[in-house]
Amino acid sequence: MPDPAVWYCIPSARADGGTLRLWKDRGYSIAVQRDPDAPRLSFGADYYWEHEWDGYPKAVNRLCREVLKEFPETLVCVTGGDDVEPDPTHDPRVIQGDFADHFKGTYGIFQPTGDEWSDSQGRIIERIAGSPWMGRDWILKSMGGNGPIFEGFNHYYEDEHLQEAAKMQGVFWQRSDIVQKHNHWTLDRSKGKPQRPAYLEKAQAMWDHDKRVFEQCKANGFKESMPL
After folding, report:
1. Statement: residue 199 has pLDDT above 50
2. What is the chain's mean pLDDT, rounded?
3. Which of 111-125 are b and which e, b meaning 16 or more Cβ less than 10 Å from the residue's Cβ?
4. At what angle do helices 56-70 and 136-145 cross, to 10 degrees?
5. Which of 80, 124, 192, 203 qualifies as a cystine partner to 84, CB 3.0-4.6 A?
6. Which domains occur in the chain, in start order?
7. Whose CA is closest to 139, among 99, 177, 87, 195?
8. What is the pLDDT of residues 35-86, one digit of tens each?
């Protein structure tokens, strides 16, 4: 029996899903949330959900839970964004097998760290779980059974929280040989100074809120992330 598909589960706002087609072409199954008035994708998503925007964590959690319910053989879901590319050389099912071997199961978070996007502190992806692989048991059990991502955030800090929460539980893994390139909007200088996409303006307005939530979780030892 072949290994079950690896699912890429994200909310998407970019025209025609941004990088989603790359993930599908690499052999991932695609689960996507789009606004009700967004144009449908020109290629078929394996799971398509229309929903008004209510924050990144809720969207990812909703998609992951639905995928596990509809496709119970699923072992791993990956998330990120429609500006993130899949690793161009590693087979997703091989990575999935490595994941299960490393964690001796599926309760864990794995973050590829080969993306070279850096700042003064080094590679950004080494400090956040920005495009994580999330095991089935983590999705079902973490965050008190409301996982895989803490829903107290709107858009920001959830990736730093996820990394710190998984590290606190001893179930966080990184590999620099796997590259999931993040084409962040700040890197696009094709038209001069980069411009924040309009759909991120509402998220930016919640930055201070998300920062306060993270600081509260950190002060509390990330206890909200513990399994059911």
Report:
1. yes
2. 93
3. bbbbbeeeeeeeebb
4. 130
5. 80
6. 7-225 (3.90.550)
7. 99
8. 999 998 998 899 999 999 999 999 999 999 999 999 999 999 999 999 999 9
